[in-house]
């Protein structure tokens, strides 16, 4: 089964993977969150073929995760900006960064430090329950589909 064939599955994890399940797609998003917007910037950062990058950008645009905006008329040039839908993927990347640093560490590379952009204070992102503010522990959570009608 191809990634895009997962979009009609009943499982939301499968549907999400239909958009971001490819390794290059997540790395494109990582760079977009780092502020890279132009094709050449992304190409240089990622070191992938132009064809693969173009394909991933088109897919993210088609999925509504990125929006392509023209910034030059002569010659026509575009940049890629995260949409609200794209920005909603930030917690996924934060979780993946933390998981990678914990379970796939490299002694020669320092861990990321997350800081509040306004205050500069160090922050420690965690997944929490909006209602209680408690950190979510998978050993204490169950998930089910419930009919709300």
CATH architecture label name: Orthogonal Bundle
Total count of strands: 4
Strand order of the largest sheet: 1-2
Helical/strand content category: alpha+beta
Q: Oligomeric state of the chains?
A: single chain
User: Ends: how far apart?
Assistant: 33 Å
Kindly report the average pLDDT value: 92
Bin the strand percentage.
5-15%
So, the CATH homologous superfamily? Winged helix-like DNA-binding domain superfamily/Winged helix DNA-binding domain
Instruction: Give the total of domains.
Output: 1
Poorly predicted regions: none
Instruction: Enter the CATH topology name.
Output: Arc Repressor Mutant, subunit A
**Helical run tally:** 6
Nearest-angstrom radius of gyration? 18 Å
Give a description of the structure.
It comes from Pseudooceanicola nanhaiensis. This is Transcriptional regulator. It holds the Pfam family HxlR. One of its GO terms (molecular function) is DNA binding. The protein has 149 residues and is α+β, with helices and mostly antiparallel strands. It has a single domain, classed as Arc Repressor Mutant, subunit A (Orthogonal Bundle). The protein has a two-stranded antiparallel sheet with strand order 1-2. The longest helix has 14 residues. It starts with 11 loop residues before the first helix and ends in a 26-residue tail after the last strand.
